[in-house]
Amino acid sequence: MSTTSMIIIGVILVLAIGGAFALYQYQKKNLEKLFTQVYETSKQVPKQKKNSFQLLMFKEAMSASLKKSKKAPSSNPLNNPKYIEIQMMHMSRILKDTSSVKDKKVKRALRLLKDYQAWETAQNAKNKQASQSKSSSKPQKNN
Questions:
Q1: Residue 4: pLDDT band by 50, 70, 90 thresholds?
Q2: Quick one: DSSP state of residue 141?
Q3: Helix (H, G, I), strand (E, B), or coil: what is residue 101?
Q4: How crowded is the C-beta side of 3, counted as CA atoms within 13 Å?
Q5: SS3 label, residue 46
Q6: Which of 5, 40, 126, 139 has its Cα between 20 and 30 A from that of 57?
Q7: Which residues of 31-53 are buried (b: 16+ CB within 10 A; e: fewer)?
Q8: Cα–chain-centroid distance for residue 16?
Q9: How far apart are CA 65 and CA 59, in angstroms?
Q10: From CA 63, how far away is CA 97, in angstroms rounded?
């Protein structure tokens, strides 16, 4: 092989590695954004329904497509409380027996839920540590 072909192969390899790294960073940023959004919205849900709601959110995020984004916001089924309640019951059934799940989107949503729970634990630990360091660094006044 000549040196020009080696240089071309090297450049292509560097571009491929750079593209893969950029894609990884993009996906990581979007996943972080999704987790933050779910974290904020799940604060409004009662604790007993929290996991079902989070699974529903991840399932809806997995099934989001261009067709859905072009629909009018008023036709969004997430605005319908009856739809939400039925889906929450379905999600709680899925959470009770995850081995019977056959749908690809639900399996991916379950994986996302598991990753989210690990992220939430780390986030809570980081927030707790930050609040402890703030309280210990404040000078205390003695009268």
A1: very high
A2: P
A3: coil
A4: 0
A5: coil
A6: 126
A7: eeeebeebeeebeebeeebebbb
A8: 26
A9: 12
A10: 21
Q: What is the dihedral of CA 25, 26, 30, 35, to 10 degrees?
A: -10
**Tokens representing 12?**
């292509």
pTM: 0.73
- DSSP state for residue 71 in the 8-state scheme: S
Residue type, position 71, single letter = K
- Euclidean distance between CA atoms 95 and 54, whole angstroms: 11
Structure tokens at 102: 């056959």
Distance in angstroms (rounded) separating the CA atoms of residues 61 and 78: 12
pLDDT at 133 over 90: no
